């Protein structure tokens, strides 16, 4: 992939898209297998080539396969990604000279507005459209205020944002784009957390004005 001129990370994206998202054991099948295990009397008889031991091994496999392969991979890889891969990526790609004069650069301003305003606006708008058209159902305890806070927190961009910026911008513009990403992440995190803190003591009292 790298020699062909295509970015090597595209191979990871392809493998991710190929990973099955459907589980292979349904809840009904799992409950039936567990009921079979529970039907055996209690005691120290789970060893040897016996029917109860086979049922126990079948239950172990069924419990594992109740999660889809992509969920199992996500659980397995999450510690490595969170504590090793992402910090290494950040250290390798975030280096840049910081000059406050660059805050007025058109690329910096465009990236900042896209993250801080564009993301929460898009999330709220399409969530409202999905609820209004019946595609999705909003849980009663999920207010539009919480959705707005989540939309603001979605403006925190780092790894993928830096990756896309490196592909999209020329070397002369990449530092301006990185400054926009980092400043937008700080602003989005601050605003999102502030909104969550404001909502929490008041019992999530944000009115559902968008209904």
Your description of this structure?
The structure is a single chain. By secondary structure, the chain is mostly helical. It has a domain at 100-211. Helices cover 66% and strands 0% of the residues. It is built from 8 helices and no strands. The model is unreliable at 203-210 (pLDDT under 50).
Instruction: Provide the residue-averaged pLDDT.
Output: 81
**Topology as H/E string?**
HHHHHHHH
How many individual helices? 8
Low-confidence stretches: 203-210
Tags for this entry?
8 helices, single chain, disordered C terminus, mainly alpha
Brief synopsis:
With 211 residues, the protein is mostly helical. The protein is built from eight helices and no strands. It has a domain at 100-211.
Helix-strand blueprint:
Blueprint: H1 9-18, H2 27-38, H3 51-65, H4 69-93, H5 106-133, H6 144-153, H7 159-168, H8 171-199
Helix pairs in contact: 2-3, 5-6, 5-8, 6-8, 7-8
